[in-house]
Amino acid sequence: MTHRPLPPHDEDKPHEECGVFGVWDAADAAALTALGLHALQHRGQEATGIVSLEGGGQEVRNARFHAHKGLGLVGDNFSDPKVMAGLPGRAAVGHNRYATTGETALRNVQPLYADFEFGGLAVAHNGNLTNAHALKRMLVRRGCLFQSTTDSEVFIHLIAISLYSTVVDRLIDALKQVQGAYSLVALHNHALIGARDPLGVRPLVLGRLPAREGEAQAAGSGWVLTSETCALDIVGAEFVRDVEPGEIVVVDDQGVRSIKPFGRSPSRFCIFEYIYFARPDSLVEGMPVYEARKRIGAELARESAVPADVVVPVPDSGVPAAMGYAQEAGLPYELGIIRNHYVGRTFIEPTDQIRHLGVKLKHSANRAVLAGRRVVLVDDSIVRGTTSRKIVEMVRQAGATEVHMRISSPPTTHSCFYGIDTPERSKLLAASHGVEEMARIIGVDSLAFISHDGLYRALGRPGRDAARPAFCDACFTGDYPIPLTDQQDNSERQLSLLHAAP
Ligand code: SF4
């Protein structure tokens, strides 16, 4: 295991919790997993880990698992040939972490691994369980000893105490007890297993690797389970399909098997994946994310056009929406804010003196585009509003005569409990301020958000059906589709009393 400094992140943006990647039956499985995790780096930058399986499948008697985990980025942890040589085998599972539960400590870095009577099991989880505290209390009473502070460890103990005999039956038994959002990839001696929660809140896709030159098709074409299609692209795998909500996919030497142990319920995929989290080159639930963002921008222009000279994105996440807005509004699209991609580790723990410069470390205004112009600034969300205020100030200082902000999501009025790190409700600007008040605080001439119906229209729906919304949109509506058991039973706020030394 390695311990590296953490990269900086934007405290005024929601953060995706995790990315998962698993591969079955491929040469260099750990290297493919490292590549996949690299493509999923946007889903978590705090820590990363890979567990590989040597001699599994039909050679089950010789099965051995190998693990390497570290804090920091994938490239920092998996570029050393010695590390990769220590992860042999034709199957592997990996994880990128952005912590929403449990502190950042190596014991929380996934995949979590445990030995059972049926063999080894490594589990990588994207999402957040909403009854983890309640389950942990029950498990501790039954004698389970928790080693980490992450909610994902609950899966391991539920599998351990299950009375079923096979790993798949035990997993199903565990999944029937948890509430919340999960996309899981688990590696066992005999199989790679993927599972998605019954509402399919977080994404999970199945892909197939091409046969390698000189290998027979059957021997060479391994399988991949991962969070996004961009991770399939980087390893040259072909997108097969989305894992369905509530589906368990078992990949072994016989091929792929699908199990649907839950009754059918309508999908509530996270709408924020389209707006912000997923990578723009990914295909999410059948829709290219880039296209979805452009359509949201176009809808925003139809809803809240304003006389202006130029449309400017807040990079990077506002870029496709700004392009859609500009095309629909018939306005020029220009890069009026330049993002510095090399805000390095120097500023991980900035001094107060540096910190007050804030956003300037990351963004700078392009005076040539902004001076003397009426500017439409397009961003994907306003969380606390602190970054937006600084960006607007910077744009005005560069000579913009008017600044109109357009946001490609509805106001973020509620926190997420399904795997996205958002501040508590009292810190969300839109939770306690109306749009005009927010405009005054941010310092813009006008502010508009896409409407709920407009967002749904951009995603190919007639509008938001309040009785049966097609997506999870709880952070914009407060309509939480999965019970928030731990929030309602607020007696214990943390999963462990032991906290890592700084
Ligand atoms: Fe996504 Fe918001 Fe639902 Fe969380 S609450 S899963 S961010 S839509």
Question: Which ligands, by name, code or SMILES, are bound?
Answer: iron/sulfur cluster
Overall pLDDT = 89
Structural class: alpha+beta
Number of helices: 19
Strand content: 15-25%
Could you give the order of strands across the largest sheet?
Answer: 4-3-5-2-11-10-12
Cα-atom Rg, whole angstroms? 23 Å
What is the molecular shape?
A: globular
Helix content: 25-40%
Given as residue ranges, the uncertain stretches (5+ residues, pLDDT < 50) are: 1-9, 345-349
Sheet with most strands: 7 strands, antiparallel
Q: How many angstroms does the end-to-end distance come to?
A: 17 Å
Number of strands: 25
Active site: 18 (nucleophile)
Family: In the C-terminal section; belongs to the purine/pyrimidine phosphoribosyltransferase family.
Function: Catalyzes the formation of phosphoribosylamine from phosphoribosylpyrophosphate (PRPP) and glutamine.
Pathway: Purine metabolism; IMP biosynthesis via de novo pathway; N(1)-(5-phospho-D-ribosyl)glycinamide from 5-phospho-alpha-D-ribose 1-diphosphate: step 1/2
If you had to describe this structure to a student in words, what would you say it looks like?
It is built from 19 helices and 25 strands. Mean pLDDT is 89; it is low at 1-9 and 345-349. The protein is an alpha+beta fold and 502 residues long. The radius of gyration is 23 Å and the shape is globular. The chain starts with 14 loop residues before the first strand and ends in a 14-residue tail after the last helix. Bound molecules: iron/sulfur cluster. The site of iron/sulfur cluster has 11 residues, from helix 18. Its EC number is 2.4.2.14. It catalyses: 5-phospho-beta-D-ribosylamine + L-glutamate + diphosphate = 5-phospho-alpha-D-ribose 1-diphosphate + L-glutamine + H2O. It is an enzyme of class 2 (transferase). Residues 18-254 form the Glutamine amidotransferase type-2 domain.
